[in-house]
Amino acid sequence: MKAMRRTLNPSIPQTAALIGLAIVGTLWTTAALAKRKWKKTKARKKYTCAPYMYDEEAVRSAIDLRIREGFQDQSLVASEVAAELFGEYPGGGTIVFPPGPDDPVGAQCVWALVVDLVDLIFTKQNIEATELDEGIAWQLRDRNDPGYPWLQPSLEVDNIPTPGMFVDMGNYEGAWDPSSGYDSLVRTSLANALVMAGKDPALATGSSSTSKRLRREMRALFHCSKFLDNLYGQTDPNKAHGPGETAQRWMVNSQGRGLNWNAVHADNLQRIGQGLAPRRQTDLQGDMPADMAGHPMLMWVPAVDHNALGGAIPTVKASEWSDGSSTTEPPPVVQNLGLDMGGVEMPGGAGC
After folding, report:
1. β-strands 298-300, 139-141: how paired?
2. Which of 19, 40, 60, 338 is the most buried (most CB within 10 A)?
C-alpha cells in the first residue's frame, strides 16, 4: 500500500496541503517558537521575509476563505495557505510547506507568520479545532495494486480515470487531461476496467454494438452515483460537459441533472483528507455563492464487477462493498463522513 506524497505544484494549490502533514505537529511547534520575534511588529501589514514579501491582508483573506469552506484543522489551513501564497520560491523552484530545517530562512519566516495568524484568527473566532482523522488517508495506486475494490480512498498515481479510484479534476500534471471531457472520462474508465477484467481495452473505443453498449453501461454507473449527483448534479445542460464538448442527452441522468464541469465546487479532496463531510457548494442550477472559492470536481469512478465484465458476454455493472452498499458510491469510510448539502435538496432523489 502506497502512502501518498505529492510534489508541490503552485498551479494546483488544492493538493499542496496534503504534503508533509505527518510532520506538521513538530513544525507547528517550531513555528510557534519562531513567531516570537515578530510580535513587536504585529501592527505592520507587510513584512520582509527575503526573498518573500509577506502581505498580511492577503494571508488573512486566504485563511478566512478556508474557514468559510469549513476547515477546522489549524495545521491544514496553514499548510494550504502557505502553499498557495508562497509555494513558488522567488529564487526559483518550489517550497513544500511546512518547510524543513534545511529550507531557506525566508520560507521558514513566512511559515512562522502564517502559523501565527492562523492561531490568532482561530482564537478570535473561537473556532474549536479538530484533529485530522488518521483513518482517512489518501492513497496513490495503480490499477494492478492488490485489494480491489480498495477500502481506503485512492487516487491513481498518474490521475488516470480508473474504477474504484477518485480523479482529481484539477490536476493537469497527470497522464490524463481533465479538460478532455465526459466522453473521455467514460472511455478511459471503461478501458481500465476492461484491462483489469482481462479484456481487450479496445472495446472501450470501438464502434461495434458491444462497445456502444459497454459505454452506455459505464455512463449509467456515473449517473447512478448518489455521491456524484448530490455534490455536483445540476440542471443546466451547458455545464454538464468538458470545455471541448457540446451538450448531449446522455450527459444527464433520469432526473435531468448532469455533473457540473465548472470549477465552482468545494475542495472535497482536502475535506475528505481532513475527515470532513464532502460539501455541495452550488445551487441546483450549478452556480456557487459569489464569496466562495471554486474548485474542480473530485470525481469518483465507480468500481466495476470484474466477473461480469470478464465474462463471455461482457457487462458493466457495479459490485458491492463489504457493508452491502453499491460501488457506485465511494468506499464506506468516505460514505460514513456523510454529505454537507448546504441546504440543497435533490428533486426526485439523488442518482438514477
Report:
1. unpaired
2. 19
Tell me: pLDDT of 28 over 60. Answer: no
Q: Are residues 207 and 181 in the same domain?
A: yes
Do 145 and 184 fall within a single domain?
Answer: yes
**Residues 143, 287: one domain?**
yes
Q: How many distinct structural domains can be found in the chain?
A: 2
CA 87 to chain CA centroid, nearest Å: 19
Residues 75 and 207 in one domain: no
CA 34 from chain center: how many Å?
A: 32
pLDDT > 70: percent of the chain: 84
The burial class, CB within 10 Å (0-12 / 13-18 / 19+), for 93 is exposed
* pLDDT tens, residue by residue, 99-146: 876 778 888 899 989 998 998 999 888 887 655 445 477 999 999 999
Give the number of other Cβ atoms within 10 Å of residue 347's Cβ.
10
- Asked if the structure places residue 346 within a domain, the reply is no
The answer to whether residue 220 scores a pLDDT higher than 90 is yes
pLDDT digits (tens, 9 = 90+) for 305-323: 999 999 999 999 999 998 9
Does residue 217 share a domain with residue 146? yes
Is residue 222 located within the same domain as residue 97?
A: no
Domain membership of residue 109 as a residue range: 13-124
Whole-number mean pLDDT of the chain? 84
Picking from 301, 302, 299, 316, the residue whose alpha carbon sits closest to that of residue 197 is 316
Domain-located, residue 232: yes
The residue out of 124, 148, 174 marking a domain boundary is 124
Clarify whether residues 259 and 155 are in a common domain: yes
Lowest mean pLDDT among 27-41, 79-93, 149-163, 201-215: 27-41
pLDDT at 295 over 70: yes
Let me know: does 147 contact 265? Beta carbons within 8 Å: no
| b/e burial code for range 7-17 (CB count within 10 A of at least 16 → b) | ebbeebbbbbb
CA angle 82, 156, 346 (to 5 degrees): 80
Residues in contact with 70: Cβ distance below 8 Å, sequence separation at least 6, in sequence order: 266, 271, 276, 279, 340
How many Å apart are CA 218 and CA 187, to the nearest integer?
Answer: 8
CA distance 195 to 9: 31
